[in-house]
């Protein structure tokens, strides 16, 4: 695909730390804090949300944001190539704000779930942040900046966990979404004011049909997994969802393999890329599952004699804040190591470290 440039003159790539680069990294790190407030922070009040809506479907209450983010990310990424990264990043933050406001006022799941799906758009901000860094930095310094941008927000996350828990106790879980909406608007203004717009444009079109097919397929399969346990795995309703989801996914695969400018071009997925994506998929899924289980286990009272004893003030926030310490250290460290030995070896080392720590939890 041929790239074009707007009238904005090209800027030189950053090869070392300068004050403009420090400012850009700070703004993008705060953007990633908004992502966390939309995707992960609601886990702190997950038990309260389940009680409020009278459901035990944790996947629909929380995981819909991540599921929708999987669809938003390629759509908004393609839009950024066509219309500019800064402009689409602002749009992404405003979509997250709109979703947070819907969640704050939702009287039931029928409005709360669409709100979470809009909040899922914030996940695209992570990838747009990386793309912006790569467009203004030389590769060596760029890896370090990416590590700081994607993990620097963890410093704020550590403190925000305790603040959010206290606010939720005082005003209800809805306050979390109001805070998320305010943060999204504030960062949209900062991005518009302080970040430069890339002059590079890539002509193309946005595959909305592919997104609908893929989203319908994933939603159908998720619906079967969520409702099968309640109504029966061989009941008519869950089986219809499974069949519809499978058919939509197969249709998306066949269409995407032939059409130009698909949502995800499977023809470009080589074996090394496929293995990398598999590692990222498994790592992100396991991390998100761990956080979701922690919030539910942390709500168990010690009086039940199950050995948890974590249902005291601050315990859930502490458990959810602890990974932030590792993220804060690991992000910049991974960027520094990758700049010296390569990203493939760094990723392999991270996988081995994660596996060893996970096995250690059984001891």
TrEMBL record:
Note the topology in the membrane: Multi-pass membrane protein
Enumerate the GO terms in the molecular function aspect: transmembrane transporter activity
Localization per Swiss-Prot or TrEMBL: Cell inner membrane
State the PROSITE patterns in the record: MFS
Task: Look up keyword Transport and say if it applies.
Answer: yes
Locate the transmembrane regions by residue number: 21-46, 58-76, 88-112, 118-137, 144-164, 170-194, 206-225, 231-254, 275-297, 317-339, 346-362
Q: Which InterPro entries match?
A: MFS, MFS_dom, MFS_trans_sf
Q: List GO terms (cellular component aspect).
A: plasma membrane
Keyword annotations of the record: Membrane, Transmembrane, Transmembrane helix, Transport
Give the superkingdom in one word: Bacteria
Major facilitator superfamily (MFS) profile domain: which residues? 22-363
The answer, when asked if Transmembrane helix is one of the entry's keywords, is: yes
Q: What SUPFAM superfamilies does this protein's entry cite?
A: MFS general substrate transporter
Q: Which Pfam families match?
A: MFS_1
PANTHER family found in the cross-reference section: MAJOR FACILITATOR SUPERFAMILY, VACUOLAR BASIC AMINO ACID TRANSPORTER 4
Please identify the protein, giving its name as recorded.
MFS transporter
Identify the taxonomic lineage of the organism of origin. Answer: Bacteria, Bacillati, Actinomycetota, Actinomycetes, Glycomycetales
């Amino acid at each position: 695909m041929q790239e074009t440039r707007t009238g904005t003159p090209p800027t030189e790539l950053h090869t070392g730390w300068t004050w403009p680069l420090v400012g850009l990294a700070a703004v993008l790190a705060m953007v990633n804090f908004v992502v966390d407030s939309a995707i992960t922070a609601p886990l702190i009040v997950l038990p309260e949300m389940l009680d409020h809506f009278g459901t035990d479907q944790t996947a629909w209450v929380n995981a819909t944001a991540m599921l929708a983010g999987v669809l938003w990310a390629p759509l908004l990424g393609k839009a950024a190539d066509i219309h500019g990264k800064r402009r689409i990043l602002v749009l992404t933050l405003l979509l997250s704000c709109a979703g947070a406001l819907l969640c704050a006022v939702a009287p039931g799941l029928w409005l709360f779930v669409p709100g979470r799906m809009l909040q899922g758009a914030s996940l695209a901000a992570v990838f747009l942040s990386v793309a912006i860094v790569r467009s203004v930095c030389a590769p060596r310094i760029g890896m370090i900046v990416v590590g700081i941008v994607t993990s620097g927000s963890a410093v704020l996350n550590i403190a925000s966990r305790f603040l959010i828990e206290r606010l939720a106790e005082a005003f209800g879980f809805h306050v979390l979404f109001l805070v998320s909406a305010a943060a999204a608007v504030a960062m949209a203004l900062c991005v518009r004011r302080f970040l430069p717009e890339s002059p590079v444009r890539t002509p193309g079109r946005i595959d909305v049909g592919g997104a609908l097919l893929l989203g319908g397929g994933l939603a159908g399969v998720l619906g079967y997994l969520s409702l099968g346990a309640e109504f029966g795995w061989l009941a008519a309703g869950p089986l219809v969802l499974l069949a519809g989801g499978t058919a939509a996914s197969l249709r998306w695969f066949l269409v995407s393999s032939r059409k130009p400018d698909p949502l995800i071009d499977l023809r470009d997925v080589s074996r090394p890329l496929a293995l990398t994506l598999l590692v990222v998929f498994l790592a992100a899924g396991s991390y998100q599952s761990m956080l979701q289980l922690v919030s539910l286990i942390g709500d168990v009272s010690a009086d039940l004699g199950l050995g948890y004893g974590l249902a005291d003030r601050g315990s859930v926030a502490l458990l959810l804040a602890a990974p932030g310490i590792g993220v804060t250290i690991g992000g910049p460290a991974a960027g520094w190591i990758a700049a010296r030995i390569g990203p493939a070896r760094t990723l392999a080392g991270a996988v081995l470290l994660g596996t060893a720590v996970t096995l250690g939890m059984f001891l």
